[in-house]
Amino acid sequence: MSGLTDAQVASFHKNGYLVVPDYLSSAEVSSLLSETESLLNNFSLEDHPLTQFTTGDSGDGDAHVGDDYFLTSGDKVRFFFETDAFTDEPDPLTGRAALLKPKQQAVNKIGHSLHTLSAPFKAVSLTERNAAVARDLGFVDPRVLQSMLICKQPSIGGAVPSHRDSEFLYTDPPSAVGWWFALQDAGVGNGTLGFWKGSHTGAKGGGITRRFVRKVDGKGTEFVGNEGPSLPRGMDEETKGEPAEEDLEIVDVKAGSLVLIHGNVLHKSEKNTSSRSRYAYTFHVIEGAEGWEYDGRNWLQPPETGFSKLYS
Predict the structure, then answer these.
(1) Whole-model pTM?
(2) In this structure, what CATH number is given to the domain that contains residue 47?
């Protein structure tokens, strides 16, 4: 099974991301969209805590996500809402937050173990082709974690501030790479991805200087300074510069495309201000081989059986 060409690997290592068009077939995209529709239609609001997804990193004083519903979702399929999907005042009859939209149009994301618990998502995750891509990127024992469907709902799909994925899924040394599949066209106006080219390197400030972790008392999450290695093995640890605004590229990604995202590359997405949704499926891969340690304070912790092996 073919993975990436030499030119694609070189582009990924140079820029910190890579768009691979037509990675999924139209049948695979349709299957995932159908599964998404089923999940959104069939989950219950009756006992749902109505958890709103935010990292508390917007600069607006938002609280970090840290309830049990979020922290124990690593081996489950759970539903998280957009912050703008609720009225300012709770429902006077129930005392609970009230949705402004039908639940199907209010969900921010579904996660975080679609790759093990949903057959259609598993079928595009734990594959020989993804294993071949991981080998081409240098993984020895790649492990899949944090799989999720990002909805980016029309007009309310929230912005994701600039960040580096290894801040959230830290290994010592850093090793995370994101697999991001566009299930609908993503472009300017509906919250597509924006990358700072080369910002995964020390030359452009690519070191992991902070981490999103569980609080010591186990009650919630927070950002803390990183005291471990800041760059993947083989990269110069010295930070010599900062990302430049002229390096920012807003990518136009067609449905079926795969975007590979280096764990140290600075990237973001804007609010979806359009009338069309921007569904995307994503999971991350970390190195599970000896010599890389997944940190015990990361917000997402492995299930008893460990994270999913991409290949033996």
Answers:
(1) 0.94
(2) 2.60.120.620
